[in-house]
Design brief:
The structure is a homodimer. Chain A is 33% helix and 23% strand. Chain A is an alpha/beta fold. Among the domains of chain A are: 2-123, NAD(P)-binding Rossmann-like Domain (Rossmann fold, 3-Layer(aba) Sandwich); 272-334, no CATH class. In chain A, the strands form 3 sheets. A 7-stranded parallel beta sheet of chain A has the order 3-2-1-4-5-6-15, sandwiched between helices. In chain A, strands 10-11-12-7-13-14-16 form a 7-stranded mixed beta sheet, with helices on one face. In chain A, strands 8-9 form a two-stranded antiparallel sheet. In chain A, α7 crosses α16 (422-433) and α15 (390-407) packs across α16. The longest helix of chain A is centred in the last third of the chain and has 18 residues, at 390-407.
Chain lengths: 454, 454
């Protein structure tokens, strides 16, 4: 039997493991799942005969090497910062490796060694990064294959709550790491290209510079810009492109309300609040407002941010119960961002029967024979339940399919890779369709980046 | 003769050197001024017989030690980061030392050595830090001496243009390091205490949370909060204080207009703008606004920031000529802050006959015999001309007076010091009066921090 070692069995591994188990008979696979805590792995395996869960501390070099030596390929589903030691062992013991994480400089540094040993170290093959790379490159290559010149590429992804479970005013629940949502966009300004001009949006304006998108059957969304839209400009072969913009999708109205937290300073993760442990939610809000012996926290906030009493953003704040004087923060030496995260988790944690949704939207503008064209490609994936989420599906299935394709020598180009070549994206995108992960492409009039045309 | 070595002869040394020269006969002093460029030192010395200018590269250990060995006391007027090697040599060769800079952790680390050798390493004895410490401690000590309990301390300093030279809409010109003005307030949130509650203001709100102050004969000012108002809480003996707030003074209206730069992202110093060298001022502004094939930069800015066409802040922007399409930035790989600084220096550089102004305002609230009291203390110093500026006066004179007092063994407490003890502040504040640097103290009704009372 061919042996696959999956390290990590967190929330995003359910579909990955299910896929491998379902293929284990026909493909002659034996799957070992290693984690420091094997509860979830056991649950995912059930009593399948072609799999086992082992306790594996990835920081224990001896047991890590032992596990890696005894497999044919390694899938690391650990947080990104834990991949590198695994990757070094993979090279040492000549094993292929697959991750869904961004290629770190340390990982990239293994490229020569991987090539020299004929090993595939495939990364960024989940979703954002992953399916976005593959679906974008497929359309970009097809445009270029027919002689087109790409002048615009915009790409947006959102991890959201499914419409049927969407029951709060923010139209949002946490489906990915809550912390990443709270600190999203911080650091230096968001940078992108619009019609040949570099544009910069500082954090305090990021959530006020949104744009709208429509997805057939799912209505309207808004997007705010990612920090670095230009990250894949060269990798995608878009060095001469006029417009390059990547962003994050939310339901319309989220960003305007979120900007209240940004403006007040509640998303700041760079310092700790005095005596945060004993604060009420109300105290927390008040810490960002002027002192007054008489005025209420509510009125001070409304006045500071000029919020009318009948503005829906006000209801959004109230819905989060942030003015509650009895709920305690309870976190010691917490940053504003940590406290805000806790407050939001009270309201935005998925409930048992909630389903999540993964939405992706690409726009491709190109010139062909002197005419301008545009293709819009959209994809929506819904979760089945709290285990088999849209997130786990879109992250785990491409990882699983790539793993088997490498084992079967359908993906063979050695080195530290990401899924941007036909060798990789064609078979994977094709198979993803069987699981309902499919892009809806349509030709639309070329709009460029002109608000007047929209 | 007693020998004094002054290292550095920049803009803030004119009064320092003049004071020492004027005292050189009666006090039997010989002053050596060392700088890498001795042009300015020569000009300041003229043909005075008790002084000489020497070329001194502070990074050249041999000549640095040679100069320090041959003196009785060292005054370092270099930028703060260059003090430490001088300070180490001072300890090595048993010389006292005076600086106007904040005590760095490296400087503080020399405290034990300084004490063991009976050396005074006096720091923070210019202005902000310096005169603010001394004038505050004098009043705080007098309140405590009469049995009062200090419940409020607010302290504000502004380096501004003198009223007679105040001829632009911002009522501001650069009198200190322009770079510090452009990046002021950045980093984590401003933190202070109001009526027993910790308050936090994020950078994007800092210039919208101002307060007003009146100075007799000079009209109205506004203040915005410093990053860390609590820095001297313990040093000043204010651990149980209810309100502690330090800030920077500007003329009213400055901050509201400045906030436009903050909001657009033009003060960001954390990344560089693409092709900044070839940008016009107009291009720079446009980089922070949405793309439009038709709308003007002016209208886009007005719309983004909701500025009415008859709002004075608009005239302030126009006055700076930032919409000029012909003026070029010319700076290679410049950050937004560097570009903004250049644009502002076109308008805000002091002209030959311009005079500057240094303003300081302290509020002291205290309880005595069950009653609440308040003392407001203000100080305004005007510059004489572009050499003998208010800045050079308020920085240089306390340094000079302290230097002579140490030489004359009137200030003797050894160690890494700042001017917060009576031994230091009493004689210095007394002598500063002879130069017109004097606080105007008055009892006012205790207002606390209650906007309704103001």
């Amino acid at each position: 039997m061919r042996k696959i070692l999956v390290i990590g069995s967190g929330k995003s591994t359910s579909f990955l493991i299910k896929y491998l188990l379902d293929k284990s008979e026909s493909e002659n696979l034996y799957i070992t799942i290693g984690d420091i805590n094997i509860e979830n792995a056991k649950k995912l395996i059930g009593n399948h005969k072609n799999a086992t869960a082992i306790t594996l501390d990835v920081f224990n070099e001896i047991s890590r090497i032992e596990a890696i030596k005894n497999t044919d390929i390694v899938v690391s589903m650990l947080p990104a910062r834990f991949h590198i030691e695994v990757a070094k062992n993979c090279i040492q013991y000549k094993k292929h490796m697959v991750t869904a994480s961004y290629i770190s400089p340390e990982m990239q540094a293994l490229n020569d060694d991987a090539k020299a040993n004929g090993l595939v170290l495939m990364n960024e093959i989940g979703v954002d990064p992953g399916i976005d790379h593959m679906s974008a490159m497929q359309v970009l290559d097809s445009i270029r294959d027919k002689g087109g010149n790409v002048i615009l590429f915009e790409s947006f992804t959102g991890g959201l709550v499914a419409p049927e479970s969407d029951n709060n005013l923010w139209n949002y629940k946490f489906t990915w790491n809550p912390r990443n949502v709270v600190v999203a966009g911080q650091g230096s300004a968001a940078k992108f290209l619009q019609e040949g001009t570099y544009k910069y949006i500082p954090y305090n304006r990021l959530f006020r510079r949104t744009e709208f998108l429509e997805v057939d059957g799912f209505g309207r969304f808004e997007v705010y810009a990612n920090r670095d839209s230009l990250k894949y400009q060269s990798v995608y072969g878009l060095d001469n492109i006029k417009t390059l913009y990547r962003g994050t999708m939310r339901r319309v109205g989220f960003s305007r309300a979120w900007n209240i937290f940004v403006t007040l300073g509640m998303t700041d993760d760079s310092y700790t609040i005095e005596d945060s442990e004993n604060m009420s939610y109300r105290d927390f809000v008040n810490a960002f407002l002027t002192y007054s012996p008489t005025d209420s926290v509510e009125l001070k906030l409304r006045h500071a941010l000029k919020i009318d009493q009948d503005d829906i953003v006000w209801d959004k704040l109230v819905e989060l119960d942030i003015f509650n004087a009895n709920k305690r923060v309870e976190l010691k030496k917490a940053t504003p961002a940590q406290i805000l995260q806790k407050i939001l988790m009270d309201s935005w944690t998925l409930e048992e029967n909630d389903k999540d949704m993964l939405v992706m939207y690409h726009k491709f503008g190109y010139e062909l024979n002197g005419k301008k064209h545009q293709i819009d490609a959209t994809m929506v994936t819904l979760g089945d339940d709290q285990t088999y989420t849209a997130m786990a599906k879109t992250v785990g299935l491409p990882v699983a399919i790539a793993t088997l394709a490498i084992l079967n020598k359908k993906i063979t180009t050695p080195g530290v890779q990401m899924p941007i070549t036909k060798e990789v994206y064609q078979p994977i995108l094709k198979e993803l369709k069987d699981f309902g992960i499919q892009f809806n492409e349509k030709e639309v009039p070329y709009l460029g980046y002109n608000p007047l045309n929209n």
